[in-house]
Amino acid sequence: KNAEGIIAQTNTAKKVLSKSTGNKNIRVIPNPLRSFSSTFLEKKNIILNVGRLVEQKNQLELIEIFSMCNYKNWILRIYGSGHLKEEIKNKIIELNLRKHVELKEFTQNIDAVFGQAKIFALPSLFEGFPNALLEAMAHGLASISYNCHTGPMDIIEDNINGILVPLSNKEVFIEKLNTLMEDEHQRMLLSVEAKKVKEVYSLNKISNEYYNFILKQ
Question: Contact at 8 Å (CB) between 138 and 112?
Fold first, then answer.
């Protein structure tokens, strides 16, 4: 509470910090988008999820959601590791989705993974600032996310550059994901707007925000 200034990643974090510390000098500065080389790969009918295999990231529910969509020509690829790995494998088998859901380890060549996919799905129950979502949008993926606390609402403008679903509303997530899978025009509209995050969250821009905030203390 005695700090000259505090930097928060999200607007929600700012509200929490303001209430808990009483500090009047709190600035929201999000994470910057890391630099990457654009990859011009053939897009495939792939829904992508990237994250630790833990309860927070909610991949088990994502698999259930996918199973209730018209997934005939689509593949759900989940990249990550964590203690739920075996449970997720069993869920894939239980729902008879071995030909349509792929569980893969993290890869250093994640840009190529983003480059091939068409949709990014984030079913997290809570987040801080979801860098994977930001990177997916920068690659032009049509992204759909639960409107969890915190992060997605700071990055996604609903139905403009992505889709926000009320937290834990599984039925709406199914409906919206199904529509994304079937509607190429909607995916393209979201993709064009999503790529604009490259300017909003550029390393140069965010670095200057940090510099200017510190300089004024």
Answer: no
